[in-house]
Amino acid sequence: IFPPRCPVCDEILGMTDSMIHSGCKSCLYPVKEPVCLKCGKMITSATREYCNDCAKKKNSHYDQGKAVFEYKGAVKQSIYRFKYDNSREYAGFYAASAVENYSGWIQRNKIDAIVPVPMYRKKKRKRGYNQAEVLAREISRGFSIPLRTDLVLRKKSTKAQKELSRKERKKNMERAFVVKKEAGMYRDILLVDDIYTTGSTANAIAGKLKAVGVKNVYVLTLCIGKGI
Predict the structure, then answer these.
(1) Among residues 2, 24, 142, 199, which one has the fewest Cβ atoms lying within 10 Å of its Cβ?
(2) How many C-beta atoms surround the C-beta of residue 28 within 10 A?
(3) How would you write 43-106 as a 3-class SS string?
(4) Cα separation, 159 vs 123, whole angstroms
């Protein structure tokens, strides 16, 4: 009834297409080395270990982050439809790309649970779904790793991060999340979100996860900006 659509052009896929039109693949920009060893942003010099942002940061709680695509070009509209136009079917392609690029990284880090960045319940009820949870569920299937949507809760609504300065983003995330003590039963958790900007959200959640006993928190996002 609802034929699958290409995540780039949103046109119906043909019988010989597999999740994306072959001609649309070139419209995406996969993250490539060299990247920041902390957040995973692409950087210009292979002799540097960290982007400028991560080199300046103190008290970073998450251990390492990776992203699938650069946040530019056609992927911007793709993510917009994924988040706001109910194009949840895109998650299959997104997750397959994540599995293709980072299966070795996830296996080396011995991830034992996948946790999506939660959405405030009223916002989720209005939209009908949490795009980070949809993506995390597909990634969970790809790696056969348990998905836990009940361990991290968003207890208050916050302003959209894209509307705030770096300092305001950090403050915006303070006291926004609640982590259940049960999360401490896991040693290595993979936190999944759609877009990484400054890392304020990931850092806030990682700090609370470690406070209940989680040893390592890794971050995997669909898109990320470019580092300097």
Answers:
(1) 2
(2) 20
(3) CCCCCCCCCHHHHHCCCCCCCEEEEEEECCCHHHHHHHHHHHCCCHHHHHHHHHHHHHHHHHHH
(4) 12
Do 69 and 30 form a contact (C-beta atoms < 8 A)? yes
Cα 132 to Cα 93: distance, rounded to the nearest angstrom: 14
Phi, psi dihedrals of residue 66, rounded to the nearest 5°: -135, 155
CB atoms within 10 A of CB 185: 13
Amino acid at the residue 207: G
Model pTM score = 0.91
Q: How many helices (H) and strands (E) does the chain have?
A: 7, 6
- Quick: pLDDT tens for 32-63: 999 999 999 999 888 899 999 999 887 889 99
Q: Report the distance separating Cα 2 and Cα 79, nearest Å.
A: 20
**Alpha helices by DSSP H, the chain:** 52-56, 74-84, 91-108, 121-127, 131-143, 166-173, 200-211
Beta-carbon contacts of 77 under 8 Å, excluding residues fewer than 6 positions away, are: none
- Token pair 């119906």 is at which residue? 12
